[in-house]
Amino acid sequence: MATQQEVADHxxxxxxxxxxxxxxxxxxxxGRGMLDLDACRVAYLRHLRExxxxxxxxxxxxxxxxERARLAAEQREHYALRNAAARRELLPRxxxxxxxxxxxxxxxxxxxxxxxxxxxPLARLADPAVVRQRLADAIGGALxxxxxxxxxxxxxxxxxxx
Length: 162
What we know:
Layout: H1 4-11, H2 15-23, H3 37-52, H4 58-86, H5 93-123, H6 128-147, H7 151-158
Helix pairs in contact: 1-2, 1-3, 5-6, 5-7
């Protein structure tokens, strides 16, 4: 007669696994410290053979089906991403980051030039409505010029060929 720990050592599994196998009635339960080592080994080997043959219990079959479905989904995603990259529908993160960073730098530079460009002409004006309109026109012009920036084209130029 053997303890759960002795059965676990004999089957090269954990004590917890032995407990779970007993709870699932895969291993015969003979009471505390009263497990038959030979009977447990035979029961465990039969259980493993059933799983290997695809005839395991419902839980094992469901687990195997779930794993196969997960693998199939991962493979579909892998090929979808690979195909999208080949069609140049995806861009590498570094290329996009460089393009967006460059664009934000252009926006910053444009806006930082406005005070120098507008200070002189606006200083001579007394009417706030005219000052407001001139500022709006200058900002609108800067934004229109920035709108022509081709961020995606810049990212595509940075992207390596697939």
